[in-house]
UniProtKB/TrEMBL annotation:
<dbReference type="GO" id="GO:0006614">
    <property type="term" value="P:SRP-dependent cotranslational protein targeting to membrane"/>
</dbReference>
<protein>
    <submittedName>
        <fullName>Fused signal recognition particle receptor</fullName>
    </submittedName>
</protein>
<dbReference type="GO" id="GO:0003924">
    <property type="term" value="F:GTPase activity"/>
</dbReference>
<comment type="similarity">
    <text>Belongs to the GTP-binding SRP family.</text>
</comment>
<keyword id="KW-0547">Nucleotide-binding</keyword>
<dbReference type="GO" id="GO:0005047">
    <property type="term" value="F:signal recognition particle binding"/>
</dbReference>
<dbReference type="GO" id="GO:0005525">
    <property type="term" value="F:GTP binding"/>
</dbReference>
<dbReference type="InterPro" id="IPR003593">
    <property type="entry name" value="AAA+_ATPase"/>
</dbReference>
<keyword id="KW-0963">Cytoplasm</keyword>
<dbReference type="GO" id="GO:0005737">
    <property type="term" value="C:cytoplasm"/>
</dbReference>
<feature type="domain" description="SRP54-type proteins GTP-binding">
    <location>
        <begin position="251"/>
        <end position="264"/>
    </location>
</feature>
<keyword id="KW-0342">GTP-binding</keyword>
<keyword id="KW-0378">Hydrolase</keyword>
<dbReference type="GO" id="GO:0005886">
    <property type="term" value="C:plasma membrane"/>
</dbReference>
<dbReference type="InterPro" id="IPR027417">
    <property type="entry name" value="P-loop_NTPase"/>
</dbReference>
<keyword id="KW-0472">Membrane</keyword>
<dbReference type="Pfam" id="PF02881">
    <property type="entry name" value="SRP54_N"/>
</dbReference>
Length: 279
């Protein structure tokens, strides 16, 4: 059942909802991780809805809270570099692999760069995925500088003239200035060889409003152009996707819904809004 399904059923056929209905809706929106600011804005807009056009009006209101920026993956004429960033534990490395599998499945050639060198498990994980999906992974020695791995990967991507170079980066947030310096250096190294078409931030939907905080920090470090939201299932907490787009005006481009390779898809805003409403 969607976050707004009970609300729709209550006001259909009547001109207004009573004060208790509005209190219940507010509580549900806050519980769904929309946050106080967005919740207040939606409640204010929703109070003008008439019963006979409740569904269409609410759909329009929710759509207006989403980013209007393109959700299509940007592509350069030659090889495109896609930098994937995010906090460790959000499913970042897995998302890199799933995106590579999706791109390969659509006919594009891909190389992966294991630049999360501070976490040995991340390099091994990406190499395992690479072997599984048939995509080459460029990795350095243990403890190698991320920038050196990225440089080697860019050289290889140019040699092979692949469509995409996907770069998995470190996700440490213990020191904000270190993060900004490291990601900035990685981006500058790539840009000397390849155009950076996208910087994709991976956010775990279950982290709620903390996801917005993470997004703000990473946006300060690098120019985030799109989001990959993981663990975005049919539960009520899926409202965080709406909150993030409204707060940052960064479009969600992909969603991950499970562990399997197939549990990854382009974000469908219409389907998402329908799910919130409970159609």
């Amino acid at each position: 059942m969607g976050i707004f399904s009970k609300f729709i059923s209550k006001i259909k056929g009547v001109s207004t909802a009573d004060p208790l209905d509005w209190q219940e809706l507010e509580a549900e929106l806050l519980a769904a991780d929309l946050g106080p600011s967005l919740t207040s804005s939606i409640i204010k807009d929703a109070k003008s809805i008439k019963g006979d056009d409740a569904l269409a009006s609410l759909t329009q209101i929710l759509n207006s809270k989403l980013s209007s920026k393109s959700r299509t993956l940007s592509k350069a004429v030659s090889t495109s570099a896609l930098i994937v960033v995010g906090v460790n534990g959000t499913g970042k490395t897995t998302s890199v692999a799933k995106l590579a599998a999706s791109l390969k499945g659509s006919g594009s050639s891909v190389i992966l760069a294991a630049a999360d060198t501070f976490r040995a498990a991340a390099v091994e994980q990406l190499q395992t995925w690479g072997a599984r999906i048939g995509v080459e992974v460029i990795a350095g020695k243990e403890g190698a500088e991320p920038a050196s791995v990225v440089f080697d990967a860019a050289v290889r991507a140019n040699e092979q003239q692949v469509s995409y170079l996907l770069i998995d980066t470190a996700g440490r947030l213990h020191n904000k200035s270190d993060l900004m310096a490291e990601l900035g250096k990685v981006k500058r190294v790539i840009e000397k060889s390849l155009p950076v078409s996208e910087v994709l931030l991976v956010i775990d939907a279950t982290t709620g409003q903390n996801g917005i905080t993470q997004a703000k920090i990473f946006t300060e470090a690098v120019d985030v152009t799109g989001l990959i939201v993981t663990k975005l299932d049919g539960s009520a907490r899926g409202g965080v996707a709406l909150a993030i787009e409204n707060a940052l005006d960064i479009p969600i481009k992909f969603v991950g819904t499970g562990e399997a390779e197939s549990d990854f898809a382009a974000f469908d805003s219409e389907r998402y809004i329908s799910g919130l409403i409970g159609e």
